[in-house]
C-alpha cells in the first residue's frame, strides 16, 4: 500500500507564491505525471513531497500518516534526479548498494539485493564497471537501481530523461513503463515534455503558474481538455485556435461562424450561452468564443469551410505537416506523407464538428455532449484478466 494525499499545499519564497493551494490524491500503484511549462511549480511540488522543501501551508499525507515534520530519509521515498549523481570512483554494484552499506546491511544481503535489481534493469553484466564506462541510458538505469534497492513506498522521478538524446529517451520511456508494471509500485514523475506524460502516465496532473489546471487520464485530457491552456499544452503539434462568432445555441450544440464565413454546429453543452444569440443580443455584447481543432483532425477537402496558402511544408515520411497561412493565423495541418502539394499553393480543408472544441472568454471549455470512448482509458486497461491477476 502506497498512497499520497496533498491537502491545500502552498509554497512561498518571500512574497512570491509558487504553489497556490494544491489538493491531489495519488492512489496505490498509480503512475502519476506532473507536467507543465518551466516555472509552473512541478519540481517544487515534487521536492515538497520528498521533504527537500517545506510547504508554507497544507499537509502531506503518505499511507495515512502526516509527513510534514518527518525528514526526507524517514518518509520511505526514493528520488531519481535529472543528473545521475553517481560516485565516479565506485562500480555499478558499489553505487547501487551504497545506501544499504550506510544502513549497515550485511554484505551478502546487500549483494543479493543488488543482483536482484540488476536483473530487473538488465545491468548484470555491468556490475564491475565504473560510471565513465557506461552510456547515458545505462547510467540512468544505475540511478534507478539505486532507488529500487531501498524498497521505497513511492518512487519520485524529477525529469530523469532530460539529459538523454531523443533515441535514448524513447528507449528509457519504454523501460520505465515496463519497470512500473514489474515492480507494481506507486510512481510520481515530473516532466515538461507532454509526450512523456501521454505515453507513460496512468494519470496526468497539468500544472500552470502554481495551480492544477486539470487531472485525468492521458486520453481524457486529449479529448476533453478543461480549458484552453490544457488544450494547447497537451498534444503535439499543438491545437489550432480560431476566433469564431456565435450564431445561435440549441440542444444540439453551438452554431458559430468560422473565419472565411463558413458555419458549423459544435456539439457542446451550450447552457452557459443559452440566453445569448445574434438575433436577440447586439454583436458587440455577445460572448467571445474560440474554436480549437487539433492538426490531426483537420482534413484536406475541396469543399471544406476553411482555406489558406501553404507557407511551410514538412515531409516526415509517413506524414506531412502543412503550415497554412489564413490572414494573421498560421494553421497546422497533419496529413498523409504522400500528398503532392507544394509551398505557396492554396488549399481548402475542414473538420468533423465532433472533433472541435469551444472555449468561452474565460478560457473554460464548453463540455462536449458526447464522452469519447477512450477518454477514461489508461495503460493498464489494456491488460487481460490474466495479466491483471499476475500483477496483483
Automatic annotation (TrEMBL):
Gene from which this protein is expressed: ugpC
Pfam name, any one: TOBE_2
Protein's name in the database: Sn-glycerol-3-phosphate ABC transporter ATP-binding protein UgpC
Domain of life: Bacteria
Organism in which the protein naturally occurs: Halomonas citrativorans
GO MF, one annotated term: ATP binding
Gene3D superfamilies attached to this UniProt entry: 2.40.50.100, Nucleic acid-binding proteins (2.40.50.140), P-loop containing nucleotide triphosphate hydrolases (3.40.50.300)
InterPro entries per the UniProt record, alphabetical: AAA+_ATPase, ABC_transporter-like_ATP-bd, ABC_transporter-like_CS, ABC_transpr_MalK-like, ABC_transpr_MalK/UgpC-like, Mo/tungstate-bd_C_term_dom, NA-bd_OB-fold, P-loop_NTPase
Span of domain ABC transporter: 4-234
Family annotation (CDD domains): ABC_MalK_N
UniProt keyword terms in alphabetical order: ATP-binding, Nucleotide-binding, Sugar transport, Transport
